[in-house]
Amino acid sequence: MGKIKGLECRPAEILKDLIALLVDAEGAQKLVLANPGLSLNQLGKTENRCRTHLVRLLRLSWLSPRIVETIVTGAQPDRINRHALLLNAISRDWAEQERQFGHCA
């Protein structure tokens, strides 16, 4: 593992998994914005996707750009992982997100 900005880089498979999660989140946001007349439940049925998972992805689509940058560079703290991003309640406030996930201000 290498170093980026003084932080240890993550193994490539973790990085790929997190980036794929961010891409899925962006896709969920685009899906919702393209279908303003449909509820998340209706979208889930139409797209054959779990409504709960769509909600979780939608939350991630508004993740702090600083957190996204640390994920893309592989420099995210250990507490930023797929499980934490999908299952934790995430604030809409970027500064609060950064505190929640241990991102240095």
Q: Find the structural class using helix and strand composition.
A: mainly alpha
Q: pLDDT below 50 for ≥5 consecutive residues: which ranges?
A: 1-7
- Tally of individual helices: 6
What is the string of SSEs from the N terminus onward? EEHHHHHH
* First and last CA, distance: 24 Å
**How many β-strand stretches?**
2
**Oligomer classification:** single chain
Task: Give the strand content.
Answer: under 5%
* Strand line-up of the largest beta sheet: 1-2
Main sheet attributes: strand count, strand direction, barrel closure: 2 strands, antiparallel
The overall pLDDT average reads 85
Whole-number total of structural domains: 1
Q: Mind explaining what this structure looks like?
A:
The protein contains six helices and two strands, in the order E-E-H-H-H-H-H-H. It is mainly alpha-helical. The chain has one domain (12-100). Strand 1 (3-4) and strand 2 form a beta hairpin. The longest helix has 23 residues, at 12-34. It is globular.
Offer a quick outline of the entry:
The chain is mainly alpha-helical and 105 residues long. The chain has one domain (12-100).
Question: What are the main properties of this structure?
Answer:
two-stranded antiparallel sheet; 6 helices; mainly alpha; 105 residues
Architecture blueprint of SSEs:
Blueprint: E1 3-4, E2 7-8, H1 12-34, H2 40-47, H3 51-60, H4 65-73, H5 82-87, H6 94-100
Antiparallel strand pairs: 1-2
